[in-house]
Amino acid sequence: MTRSTPVGVIIGTGVTGHFDLSRPKNVKSAFGSVTVYEQAAERYVVIPRHGAEHKVPPHAINYRANIAALERLGTKEVIATSAVGSMNRGFVVGGLGLAEQFIDFTRRREVTFFGDEVRHTDMTNPYSRRVNEALASAAMKLGVKLRAGLVYVCTDGPRFETAAEIKMYRKLGGDVVGMTGVPEVVLAKEKGIDYSSVLVATNWAAGMQPAVSHEEVSKVMEGAGKLVKRLIEGAVRGLTGDER
Length: 244
Ligand code: HPA
Fold this sequence. Notes:
Blueprint: E1 7-11, E2 24-27, E3 34-38, E4 44-48, H1 63-72, E5 77-86, E6 96-104, H2 129-142, E7 146-154, H3 163-171, E8 176-178, H4 181-190, E9 194-204, H5 214-240
Parallel strand pairs: 1-4, 1-5, 5-9, 6-7, 7-8
Antiparallel strand pairs: 2-3, 3-4, 5-8, 6-9
Helix pairs in contact: 2-5
The structure holds hypoxanthine.
């Protein structure tokens, strides 16, 4: 049995070019309208997090509109992609992984749908085990190594971190650092949407290599994009019961 509600795929830096952006659809939400892109062969829609032309910086993304738009489409699962700097020597540049936990170091973002009511959302396990399992199973079929259990530290950006900040994040238990994972996962959880993030280590975090650049991040991410797309499509098939 297949079903009609699409999986939401929120794609980040570097992978936009690998997806079909020829079928835009405008979805209105209480937080603004969002353009989602229907994918022909698979049962999912794509939202390029930074816009189709990569012009929206991490701190200016309308995270609430993106999640609210997916909710309107009836989306029950979100698979996101995130470029990250690795702070864990065992998770090497070019590696793919799954987030298990996050530590939030953002300070200036709209972090909730519940601004006007007293609602506290359990965040013990922010990422969906079910969606992570679908991704792990797709990775196994593709023969792709996918490192599980990573702790994602989120910063506001748009600057990269200082070497001292990375030392601190490592001490606190972080494995990877990025700028967009929070509040995206939090907002999905508030809406009861199962959310998972495919992490791509695009660089060693600050202080672990001489300097960090956006060019390097984009280049490594673009290199991984094709595989990330196949992984996502495999997981989508698993989640929607469209396994062949
Ligand atoms: N820091 C923050 N965000 C990132 C990094 C990084 O090193 N690499 C890719 N996104």
